[in-house]
UniProtKB/TrEMBL annotation:
It is found in: Membrane. One of its GO terms (cellular component) is membrane. It comes from Sorghum bicolor. Coiled coil: none annotated. The chain crosses the membrane at residues 12-33, 40-63, 69-87, 150-172, 207-229, 257-275, 281-304, 325-349, 361-382. This is Amino acid permease/ SLC12A domain-containing protein.
Length: 391
């Protein structure tokens, strides 16, 4: 989850870099291209803002959560209508749904292989739907509203996200030019597509920059929710004594917010991004923990639910029934196992140090550290979640 905050906020910093570049004339028009140190400074400011927001009371966090939901839905609706209207050149339905672009520079020509590793993007975009569960202790009627929050977030993300992607893809007519690092957006395909679309229609790419700014707000609100989720998980683990210095993190301020662990989350996320200064490969390995690590974390409790706890598990008020729960549970476990394998595959050939997929190394390291800590130390004293209320 800390790596998730790193990936969201650092991508926002890079996104802001592209917005500034296009706003000042683009890469080919003398625009300002921020250095990696400036990008890191922007990232630091974003993290501080997220830390400050998450230090406020739960009422403020609820406001930002509602704002995020409204902004995303309204933004998707506006862009879905606006993009096809503005675009002079639009891709055909056949091109959007059947064309598979193979880039010679990465050495992969199998469409099936490209589809398989391309699932990473969709899996990443659906992460974080468990945030409502992490906020359950601060939610009314949590035993019902928590699960419903997960179901609704997945449904809305899937449906509206798919519609949004169709609208974006309709602008894609010349893929190589969008990926070209020498284009106005410095190789950012989405930014270049929007910028070109508005410039062809109105003679200026200003409308595209405004659309990018609206997207940046969405990413910012997503980062806010990510830090919120980090802090609540850290608080819960500390309450159970499962984190180093648990007594320090298991504290709340006058607003009943886990203030210390909020800033711990922000600090760790900043340290993770420092790897970007030395090696982009190292940074990508750090961020790769996000998608694969979280899907493993999602799948493990489901796996134990449908195996060792199959007969002893006591369902809450929200459940799918005995048979459907097992079917859906096994589908989730098998899907988690599938993507775990896919995301460990090479993403370019021939495999070299500069393109090596370090995901299995990064995630495997976390798993080994966790298992080692359990076998050598935690199994002698850890007894699971601590009950703090009467049942």
């Amino acid at each position: 989850m800390w790596a998730c905050t790193t990936s969201v906020d650092f991508s926002l910093a890079q996104f802001i870099q592209v917005i500034v570049l296009l706003s000042t004339g683009g890469a080919n028009g003398g625009g300002y291209l921020a250095s990696k140190y400036v990008v890191l400074a922007i990232y630091c400011v974003i993290l501080i803002l997220h830390g400050l927001i998450n230090s406020l009371s739960i009422n403020w966090l609820a406001f930002f959560g509602q704002l995020g939901a409204f902004w995303n839905l309204a933004g998707v609706f506006v862009l879905t209508v606006l993009i096809p209207v503005v675009a002079k050149d639009r891709a055909s339905m056949e091109f959007m749904f059947t064309n598979c672009y193979t880039d010679d520079t990465v050495g992969i020509h199998s469409k099936v292989y490209i589809l398989a590793i391309g699932l990473l993007t969709s899996q990443y975009s659906l992460l974080g739907y468990d945030t409502s569960a992490h906020m359950s202790e601060e939610t009314k009627n949590a035993e019902w509203s928590g699960p419903m929050g997960i179901v609704v977030s997945v449904a809305l993300s899937s449906v509206f996200g798919w519609i949004y992607l169709v609208a974006l893809t309709s602008m894609v007519t010349d893929i190589p030019s969008l990926l070209d690092p020498t284009n106005d957006a410095g190789g950012n395909a989405i930014a270049q597509a929007l910028y070109t679309t508005f410039r062809q229609r109105f003679g200026s790419g200003g409308g595209g920059v405004i659309c990018l700014a609206a997207m940046a707000v969405s990413i910012f609100l997503c980062g806010t929710a990510s830090v919120t989720s980090n802090s609540r998980m850290g608080y819960a683990f500390s309450r159970d004594g499962a984190m180093p210095l648990s007594r320090l993190w298991y504290r709340v301020n006058k607003h009943e917010v886990p203030f210390n662990v909020v800033w711990l989350s922000v600090s760790v996320a900043f340290v993770m991004a420092l790897t970007s200064l030395g090696s982009q490969v190292a940074f990508q390995a750090m961020v790769s923990i996000t998608t694969l690590g979280m899907y493993i974390a999602y799948a493990l409790p489901i796996f134990f639910r449908v195996t060792t706890a199959r007969n002893s598990f006591v369902p809450g008020p929200f459940h799918l029934g005995r048979r459907c729960s097992l079917v859906v549970g096994w589908v989730a476990v098998l899907w988690g196992a599938l993507v775990t394998v896919l995301f460990c595959l090479p993403v370019a050939y021939p495999v070299a140090g500069i393109n090596f997929n370090y995901t299995p190394v990064a995630v495997g390291g976390v798993l080994l550290l966790s298992l080692g800590a359990w076998v050598l130390h935690a199994r002698f004293w850890f007894r699971g979640p601590i009950t703090t209320v009467d049942t």
